[in-house]
């Protein structure tokens, strides 16, 4: 024991002596700008045109100068209207900043680094050019300024940034694009210092079999230097090491080693490692740098599919712009993290960086949280020239090469492809990822992958017949409330089932709305050009967000309604690629919902039980077994929640247990009653009971007026108007059945009858029947009610978001309440859920108005509620058309298409069977109950309390 202590002490002394005599270095960073859009530094600034032109002032860096009140705004397509004169609309910004260099950097290599600047950037240090003008807005570039800086006094930095490039191909690729075109130094600027002998960068290729290769690029190597690579796991344990001798002539050396059974990186299992590169000379001086990576093998097997670690994967993806309303493309790590989380929350596994490389932080979060990434060279329908393009490909790949999340390089968008650049990627990418072309015309497939944009359901079926893998890099355009999830279920199932289906990327993630500093902070989406998001500009969740979450759920459940003989077994398909469903957790709830007159909404009573997750391998099917207790059918609904291996909710499904007839029967009793009166005059039949009076027009059977003894008159009237129906009045009958009195109108034509029945308690019952055969965009009846009288609507049904016929997913059965708003997706004010729209499977709805409250309930299932005037897509003609009236009770609703109301692709039927109009065959009958007011005493005994003993456990 004593000898061991002596040896340890001697080793410690030797280590201390070694450390005291040797220099250990890492790259040192000193920011000249702020680190992000929230942490900026003021520089001196001059702009040549637009606002504040021609005078020196201050500007926050990083930023776009438009967002600091300088210059003019331009959407990319603006330049198209300028034609050859677009150069006259260029603006130049002159930046000046003074900085100091630490004295201990004197013997080091010093570089100035720009993470992103729009567009041509010319840099001077102390009056001397730092190097060639950099062209290209979205790329990291640097200059060696070692011989230009002072160590004993301040240094002067001057940067001239031109919005328009002197290279027309750069303008064509970046500035004439379908997105906002801004100017300025919008990503950070910093100095970096390294020893003269150092590692400049390293490219890693780490395969699923544990093999590790790295090309390590070095500078100014001294004789007898050593390069060591240590591979470390997340706990910091060394799992592999390798040292090699370097020669002074070396500029790049390859290092290989192997690791036994590493944890593999996938979007489902984002396991990461670190490679620590240490350069040591004969004196013991060292320089160290670290790269994060993942072990994974990506293969494009032509005529088959895209494989990750030997498993075929299909992309559930979205296109994403780097964007924030106040600061444009100048963002921060928190925004990048939140965007990755939102993409994951939609059960997506992939993102396309459209149409340029994103901030480094975004890729880091894709690595750590798990997303497959298409990293894209800019080129919106026109390509970079070869000379400048080669430089930008190099900058793109060197910065991003070691991110395991990046599985493919995209060489431009929709014709913006310079084929002379295809081979450039592999010069810097040791793993030789496949290069694709994101295109919108047939014939541009590359390396066995067809990425054709905006194919519909039927053309997709054709392309999936081969011969190429089909991975559509843009589809289902989400302008306003169109596209995105509408039709997605049909097209996604095509890709899932097809051998050559590789999935795709929805256009796009968020509305590109800019806060205009020249219009008092108004958010501008450039009308129909940029409101294309699943989310609003501030990431407000539109209805499509939740529908996508259900459609892309890796726990795939097809059951729409509980079978009559349901015993607790639910068929489940595992749509993970690498995860067994046993890694997930499940819980079901039996719930009772709040009643109409309760102050609260949501669940009133519930029983909860955790479930044992079934063992179901990826892409296979199995059964989830629910142990239902006795009396479970007394509850209103069954809810099932699946949670993934990381503790995040996958989705919650809901199914009705009780019928609408049972629910309506429960809410009908009223404690007070009076005899029913039926009178008439020349124009109306008048039904009155319990203080409520209804006037029914003799000429057509429609509700003409209402009165309530306890409140003002209600303007709910002119219904039930049969939508788009033709009919004529045939006869009228009045009858008494028990204490009730009835007026029935019979018709010839598509409307069979309207029957009004007043009960002594004041409930007004409406029965109607109609027959409209053939294809119909919508079917049902409407009433008029002034929109400006509505305050809130509370209902039992699916919600809280509206639906379309081809986007019924993403809503849950519950009691919901929305306050009136006039929000329109893509237009604003981006207040969700929208109040107006179609709402599905409604049992009852309770309206709160400036004239009082009234309740409508139905006995039949599957009723859609339509609230007021709205549309899904704006364009030459707002789309789709609405039924007559203000409030409708419907048995069929329309589907929604995609961008541009007059375009052929807008026809929703092209995106799959769900987009086709409803085919009606045979009579449709429905019963509605109305209570115009709040029954006296009905707030009593309407709240349920959940007893603790109702919690079930295994």
Automatic annotation (TrEMBL):
One of its GO terms (cellular component) is beta-galactosidase complex. Gene3D superfamilies: 2.70.98.10, Galactose-binding domain-like, Glycosidases, Immunoglobulins. The keyword ATP-binding does not apply. Residues 1-23 form the signal peptide. One of its GO terms (molecular function) is beta-galactosidase activity. Its EC number is 3.2.1.23. Residues 57-195 form the Glycosyl hydrolases family 2 sugar binding domain. It catalyses: Hydrolysis of terminal non-reducing beta-D-galactose residues in beta-D-galactosides. Keywords: Calcium, Glycosidase, Hydrolase, Signal. Residues 203-296 form the Glycoside hydrolase family 2 immunoglobulin-like beta-sandwich domain. GO terms for biological process: lactose catabolic process. It comes from the Bacteria. The keyword Signal applies. Its cofactor is Ca(2+). PANTHER family: BETA-GALACTOSIDASE. Monomer. This is Beta-galactosidase. It comes from Sphingobacterium haloxyli.
């Amino acid at each position: 024991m004593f000898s061991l202590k002596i040896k340890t002490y001697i080793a410690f002394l030797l280590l201390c002596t070694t450390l005291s005599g040797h220099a250990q270095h890492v790259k040192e960073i000193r920011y000249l700008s702020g680190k992000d859009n929230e942490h900026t530094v003021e520089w001196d600034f001059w702009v040549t045109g637009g606002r504040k032109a021609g005078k020196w002032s201050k500007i926050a860096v990083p930023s776009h100068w438009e967002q600091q009140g300088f210059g003019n705004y331009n959407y990319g397509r603006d330049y198209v209207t300028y034609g050859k004169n677009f150069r006259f609309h260029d603006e130049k910004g002159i930046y000046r900043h003074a900085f100091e260099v630490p004295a201990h950097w004197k013997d080091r290599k010093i570089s100035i680094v720009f993470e992103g600047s729009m567009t041509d950037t010319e840099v001077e240090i102390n009056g001397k050019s730092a190097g060639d003008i950099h062209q290209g807005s979205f790329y990291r570039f640097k200059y060696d300024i070692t011989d230009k800086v002072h160590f004993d006094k301040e240094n002067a930095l001057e940067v001239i940034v031109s919005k328009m490039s002197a290279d027309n191909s750069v303008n064509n690729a970046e500035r004439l694009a379908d997105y906002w075109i801004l100017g300025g130094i919008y990503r950070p600027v910093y100095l970096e210092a390294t020893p003269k002998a150092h590692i400049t960068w390293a490219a890693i290729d780490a395969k699923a079999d544990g093999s590790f290769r790295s090309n390590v690029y070095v500078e100014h190597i001294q004789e007898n230097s050593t390069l060591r690579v240590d591979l470390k796991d997340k706990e910091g344990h060394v799992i592999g090491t390798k040292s090699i001798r370097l020669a002074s002539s070396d500029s790049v050396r390859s290092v290989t080693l192997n690791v036994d059974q590493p944890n593999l990186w996938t979007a489902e299992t984002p396991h990461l490692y670190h490679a620590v590169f240490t350069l040591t000379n004969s004196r013991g001086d060292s320089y160290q740098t670290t790269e994060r990576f993942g072990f994974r093998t990506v293969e494009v097997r032509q005529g088959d599919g895209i494989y990750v670690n030997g498993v075929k994967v299909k992309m559930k993806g979205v296109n994403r712009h780097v964007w924030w309303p106040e600061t444009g493309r100048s963002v921060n790590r928190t925004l990048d993290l939140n965007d990755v989380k939102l993409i994951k929350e939609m059960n997506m596994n992939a993102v396309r960086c459209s149409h340029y490389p994103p901030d480094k932080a975004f890729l880091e979060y894709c690595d750590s949280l798990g997303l497959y990434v298409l990293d894209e060279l800019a080129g919106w329908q026109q390509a970079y020239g070869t000379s400048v393009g080669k430089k930008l490909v190099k900058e793109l790949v060197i910065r991003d090469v070691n991110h395991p999340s990046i599985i493919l390089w995209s060489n431009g968008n929709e014709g913006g492809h310079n084929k002379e650049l295809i081979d450039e990627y592999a010069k810097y990418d040791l793993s030789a990822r496949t290069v694709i072309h994101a295109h919108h015309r047939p014939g541009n497939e590359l390396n066995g992958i067809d990425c054709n944009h905006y194919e519909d359901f039927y053309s997709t079926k054709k392309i999936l017949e081969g011969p190429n893998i089909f991975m559509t890099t843009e589809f289902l355009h989400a302008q306003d409330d169109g596209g995105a999830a509408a039709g997605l279920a049909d097209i996604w199932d095509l890709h899932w089932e097809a051998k050559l289906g590789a999935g795709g990327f929805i256009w796009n993630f968020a509305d590109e709305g800019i806060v205009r500093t020249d219009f008092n902070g108004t958010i501008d989406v450039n009308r129909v050009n940029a409101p294309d998001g699943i989310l609003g500009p501030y990431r407000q969740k539109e209805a499509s967000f939740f529908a996508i979450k259900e459609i892309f759920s890796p726990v795939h459940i097809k059951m729409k309604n509980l079978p009559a003989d349901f015993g607790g077994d639910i068929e489940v398909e595992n749509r993970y690629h690498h995860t067994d469903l046993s890694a997930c957790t499940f819980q079901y709830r039996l719930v009772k919902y709040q009643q109409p007159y309760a102050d609260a909404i949501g669940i009133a009573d519930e029983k909860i039980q955790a479930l044992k997750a079934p063992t179901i391998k990826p892409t296979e099917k199995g059964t989830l077994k629910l142990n239902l207790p006795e009396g479970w059918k007394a509850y209103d609904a069954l809810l099932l929640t699946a949670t993934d291996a990381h503790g995040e909710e996958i989705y919650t499904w809901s199914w009705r247990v009780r019928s609408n007839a049972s629910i309506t029967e429960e809410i009908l009793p009223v404690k007070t009653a009076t005899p029913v009166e039926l009178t008439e005059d020349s124009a109306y039949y008048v039904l009155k009971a319990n203080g409520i009076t209804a006037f029914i027009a003799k000429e057509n059977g429609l509700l003409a007026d209402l009165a309530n003894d306890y409140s003002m008159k209600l303007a709910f009237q002119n219904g039930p108007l049969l939508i788009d129906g033709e009919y004529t009045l045939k006869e009228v009958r009045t009858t008494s059945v028990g204490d009730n009195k009835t007026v029935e109108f019979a018709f010839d034509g598509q409307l069979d009858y309207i029957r009004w029945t007043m009960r002594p308690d004041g409930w007004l019952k409406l029965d109607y029947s109609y027959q409209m055969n053939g294809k119909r965009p919508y079917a049902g009846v409407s009433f008029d009610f002034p929109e400006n009288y509505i305050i809130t609507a509370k209902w039992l049904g699916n919600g809280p978001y509206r639906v379309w016929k081809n986007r019924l997913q993403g809503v849950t059965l519950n009691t919901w309440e929305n306050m009136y708003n006039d929000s329109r997706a893509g237009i604003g004010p981006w207040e969700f859920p929208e109040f107006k729209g179609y709402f599905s499977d409604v049992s009852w709805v309770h309206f709160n108005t400036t004239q009082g409250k009234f309740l409508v309930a139905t006995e039949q299932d599957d009723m859609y509620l339509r609230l007021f005037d709205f549309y899904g897509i704006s364009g030459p003609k707002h789309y789709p058309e609405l039924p007559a009236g203000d409030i409708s009770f419907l048995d069929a609703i329309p589907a929604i298409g995609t961008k541009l109301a007059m375009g052929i692709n807008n026809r929703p039927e092209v995106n799959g069977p769900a987009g086709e109009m409803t085919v009606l065959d045979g009579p449709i009958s429905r019963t509605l109950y109305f209570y115009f007011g709040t029954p006296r005493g009905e707030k009593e005994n309407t709240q349920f309390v959940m007893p603790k003993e109702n919690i079930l456990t295994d």
